[in-house]
Amino acid sequence: MMKNLLCLLFLFCTIQLSAQYDSIHVDGSPRTYLLHLPTNYDGSTELPLIIAMHGGFGSGPQLETQSKLSEKADNADFIVVYPEGVQSLLNIRTWNAGGCCGYAMNNDIDDVGFISDLIDSLVFDLAIDTNRVYATGMSNGAFMSYRLACEIPEKIAAIAPVAGTMNVELCDPSRAVPIIQFHSFEDSNVPYLGGVGDGPSNHYNPPIDSVQNAWATMNNCIIINDTLHAGSDYTHIRWIDCDCMYEQQFYITTDGGHSWPGGMTTVLGDPVSEFINANDLMWDFFQLYSLDCASTAVEIEPENDWKLLVFPNPTEGSVTIQVPVTHSDKGVLDFLDLNGKVLFSKKVNSNSIEFDLSSSSNGIYLIRFKNEEFITSERILKLSNLRF
Fold it and tell me: Are 140 and 85 in contact (CB under 8 A)?
């Protein structure tokens, strides 16, 4: 009996150490959150932090169960916090994400201020890498992650909205923000094509591809709508060559619905996607980026060493691309239009490659070089009857 009690006590203490329910005061009112520390956390090493925000009617513990992010945190060694929106008189929690949702929006709750203060509080108490703080959220929480990217991008390195879109009147971020978005063609609560969904909030949802294109403009992405996969399971699109070599990525599944891909199905929720796992994909994406304006997966060298040389430019037909010698193996040169469509490609086997553009229409194109560790591009102008 005593042995069993000791085991239960040990289990209780372990849970309390790894998952703690707490609060901070914002504008004189307590704001609550659930904090999960990875099992190996000892305070000696600064770890990344993921802020995970529940949907309308949700809570911190509910999103922890639905998303399974705490399990991922234990395996990947990051901290995850589940802040909670304010409660209405009906005990329904929502976030003020601009044009959504419910009590928090109607009462102009300062949720951006809450999340900003929460980051500061956690950084003060815990070993957190302030350059690697990320935000994600489900539904109303996804809307909120977009608002954070708009208003406090100096604190948020990247975002991963799930089953939501952006609904703010003005978004003018002070820096580019990497984004990975997850959605389902079957989501009728926040329709992929936009409009009013069948959820209880009854608000207008901007089309999600329009939101991505708007962010591509704000992030100064050169290559847009580059479709990497379009199958019966899911579509994967990306926008690349953005400021700081950032990317945007978008996964749209044909299964699931208004749910967390790879997570748990809630009692009243839609089935989850079995084609992708949002946690695995977002963590792989988050690891690429930090606030120091450099992708940790890209080895950026001095500009003269990595810049592609393209000549003649403009050209009437044949063009030579000179690849830096240090990157001229195991790479590919792509020839793309300005919509990001790859027109043709060549494997790189030397540092000097020729393209014949004589059959291409006049206009601006992109030459992109990429390998496993490096990506860069240059524009090229194709014109006929050049005169010098």
Answer: yes
| DSSP state, residue 322 | E
Residue 4 lies in a domain: no
The pTM assigned to this predicted structure is 0.75
Q: Roughly what angle, to the nearest 10 degrees, separates helices 111-125 and 140-151?
A: 80
Q: Two tokens at 150? A: 């708009």
Both structure tokens of 312: 């003649």
Radius of gyration of the chain from its Cα atoms, rounded to whole angstroms: 23
The string over 299-338, giving b where at least 16 C-beta atoms fall within 10 Å of a residue's C-beta and e elsewhere, is eeeeeeebebebeeeebeeebebebbeebbeebebbbbee
Sole residue written with tokens 């014109």: 383
Q: pLDDT, tens digit, for every residue of 217-228?
A: 999 998 888 899
Domain that holds residue 308: 303-382
Q: Sign of dihedral through CA atoms 55, 60, 62, 66?
A: positive
Domain boundary (234, 256, 286) is at 286
Q: Which residues pair with 353 in a beta bridge?
A: 321
Do 251 and 311 fall within a single domain? no
